[in-house]
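F.,

This is the one I mentioned.
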């Protein structure tokens, strides 16, 4: 692999020390800069034209993307894009970013992205409980971590709040918004069953108090074939004696009180349990 190929593999930006460790010489780096193949951003940092801004910021800070900023690169759910970049740095600081300290598992690639373990542990300590639970649930469903594994790496009283977030994760959601909905219903003391297979209806997202079906609709539910299927499921649910409510992402995430009020309006309309 030539220098530009390796640099692309490394995320299109890297410290020259990383390139030297990979076997490239200082002369080959200087020649690539002179030829315009790569740019020297400052002493010790080079990049390909068009390198991602977040990767550049991470390398310039001598750090790696972490917490919510690293979630997309690990292929796990993220509820909100962070307002500021989250970086894991051994030392130093950078203006306008959230700095995390302490690494347990080194990154496995030269890209400036913290390992999945470090990403999740820092999210558990840093983010709101629901946001962190969404990330952990996604990794859990992919079989890339376990709750015990994470819990064992959060010792002591200072990590008590982070360990408590793990109690919110159960690995039953099909999407990030379903995690939010489950925690919303649980916070109301509502009896919840998830991913229930009902005869004549199929698998429903939530069954509340044994009779209220709540479905969380993603973008596919706007497709004509899915609309027809959903209409049939709704009719079958009603004919079988169930009540049905359907909500989308923005309902659950940005207007949760409306969801709660409507759910309680249905639940209070009949004897439950």
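My design for it:
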């Amino acid at each position: 692999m030539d220098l530009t190929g390796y640099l692309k593999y490394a995320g299109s930006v890297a410290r020259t020390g990383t390139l030297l460790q990979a076997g490239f010489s200082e002369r080959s780096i200087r020649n690539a800069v002179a030829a315009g193949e790569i740019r020297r951003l400052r002493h010790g940092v080079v990049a390909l034209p068009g390198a991602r801004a977040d990767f550049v910021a991470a390398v310039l800070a001598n750090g790696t993307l972490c917490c919510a900023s690293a979630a997309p690169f690990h292929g796990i759910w993220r509820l909100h894009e962070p307002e500021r970049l989250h970086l894991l740095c051994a030392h130093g600081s950078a203006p306008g970013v959230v700095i995390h300290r302490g690494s347990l598992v080194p990154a496995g690639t030269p890209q400036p992205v913290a390992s999945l373990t470090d990403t999740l542990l820092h999210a558990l300590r840093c983010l709101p409980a629901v946001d962190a639970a969404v990330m952990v649930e996604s990794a859990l469903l992919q079989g890339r971590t376990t709750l015990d594994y994470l819990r064992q790496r959060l010792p002591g009283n200072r990590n008590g709040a982070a360990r408590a977030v793990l109690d919110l994760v159960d690995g039953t959601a099909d999407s990030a918004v379903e995690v939010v909905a489950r925690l919303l219903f649980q916070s109301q003391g509502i009896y919840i069953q998830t991913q229930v297979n009902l005869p004549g209806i199929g698998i429903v997202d939530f069954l509340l108090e044994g009779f209220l079906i709540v479905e969380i609709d993603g973008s596919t539910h706007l497709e004509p074939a899915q609309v027809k299927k959903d209409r049939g499921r709704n009719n079958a649910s009603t004919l079988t004696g169930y009540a049905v409510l359907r909500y989308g992402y923005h309902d659950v995430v940005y207007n949760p009180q409306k969801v709660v009020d409507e759910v309680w309006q249905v639940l209070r309309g009949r004897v439950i349990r």
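The first helix runs from residue 3 to 9.

Talk soon.
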